[in-house]
Amino acid sequence: MFCNQCQEALNVKGCTRNGVCGKKGEVADLQDRLLYVLKSISFYNLKAREYGLNEEATDRFVLDSFFATLTNTNFDKQAIESYIRRGFEIRDTIKAKLPEGALPARGTLPAVATVTPENINEMDVAIHSTQDEDVRSLRELLTYGMKGLAAYAHHAYILGYKDKAIFEFIEKGLVSTTDDSIGVEALIGLVLECGQKGVSVLALLDKANTETYGSPEPTAVNIGVRNNPGILISGHDLCDLEQLLEQTRGTGIDVYTHGEMLPANSYPAFKRYDNFAGNYGNAWWKQNEEFEKFNGPILMTTNCIIPPKESYRNRIYTTGVVGFEGLTHIYEKEDGTKDFTPLIEQAKTSKPPEQLESGTIVGGFAHEAALSVADRIVDAVKTGKISRFMVMAGCDGRHKERAYYTEFARALPKDSVILTAGCAKYRYNKLDLGDIGGIPRVIDAGQCNDSYSLVVIAQKLAEAFGLEDINDLPVSYNIAWYEQKAVLVLLALLSLGVKNITLGPTLPAFISPNVLKVLVENFNIRPNTTVEEDMKILLG
Ligand code: FS2
Ligand code: SF4
């Protein structure tokens, strides 16, 4: 096993025996093979597209199984093996449909096209099979960006929103990582193209979410508990939440969000459920301790599961692309719906959740809500009431050095405003940082899935101030990353020309010194240091 795809890679190098995240070596190796099967599917499907022979089921399979390899998503050996089996079947079906002459002659096909269930175990498909350090680094950067792309495209797909250009790009990108004729320059181009596709996918997902569930509204979200049994839902899948709310309506069971599901409390479509009780706990990495105290069943919808403790193992469920050995998985039915009866029945016999905290936190400032107060924001900047916006979006994680983000938020001047999205917010969203003339000092646009809102807000501000270059705005970026959705969001920002991003708590282990040089020279990316030092730099 070798995996270095997330910020918590062992010693900022890579996990080699078992993952810091809990992923077993065997599962990591299977995920490498699954990735190679996806490359093989892509090789043939690009051809199938040329002949108009692509099938939608292939798009869905590629998105789902690619998503399954994200950090904290699927730890289940059998699930990954089944993706590999199904992947080979899909690949062979595509291959069989291609007309004569569509492919190069036998014997001239690349290895990726000839892989079989029999020979894959003998092939070296691990990260270090690419010898050149810079090519390897760029292949990884592209692959992890595309994992984020696949995950966001999956979220949109579930709601019926699709973009063929994104599916095609993923296939092209996957195949390019197997092609030794594609060198450093071309790979940099693909990485930037991945960022552009990132902007498109985030825009598509924003459209999917807001057209389906309405535009989020500023909302004071309850963080205490009620006296009914509850079901806790975590991850990012709003469609799962909708079905869960519908199925628990009138049962006396409350539904609470955890981690990245918090922003769901601000959607009009969900606010109308009386049993939608608020948010319980904090970011993903605190689940061990918080799930124990919740007392009721827990549903993990996407990339936020960590190995469960015995104390709540019998009441944690997976669904969609999530998997963990020994847990009950709620499958999608033929008609695309899900039946959450097992959780509902268990909730009926559960005690109400133990209270962790009380009060409310304010969320719901996606672009529409933020722009509805744009005049006041622009005015506050012009009259000097707001001196700077600090984008502190991204991820939270278990490492102690992330306390930096709490201290940084606390140390910011009182006339600055934090713009956030993603679970990084849990490091400061309960600090009570106050407001500036009614504008909250933490403007929370939502999940990492809602990062598009930050882009729209920045673009509208640039327009309001008559600025051509987004970098001339009084906006600084101090971003925290953890996993591959964040890699994609970072590439999306770079593709929009955003410069001078401070990134932490450590730089990605997969970035080679030369690739870092390219990022520094072109975008002036820098690692975070100390609160004092970074404050000086970021406040200009
Ligand atoms: Fe939290 Fe970071 Fe959202 Fe993940 S914002 S760890 O990418 O998908 O969560
Ligand atoms: Fe290690 Fe992160 Fe890979 Fe898990 S996802 S094995 S923690 S690098």
TrEMBL record:
Pfam families: Prismane. The keyword 4Fe-4S applies. It is an enzyme of class 1 (oxidoreductase). One of its GO terms (cellular component) is cytoplasm. InterPro entries: HCP/CODH (IPR004137), Hydroxylam_reduct (IPR010048), Prismane-like_a/b-sand (IPR016099), Prismane-like_sf (IPR011254), Prismane_a-bundle (IPR016100). Its main location: cytoplasm. Catalyzes the reduction of hydroxylamine to form NH(3) and H(2)O. This is Hydroxylamine reductase.
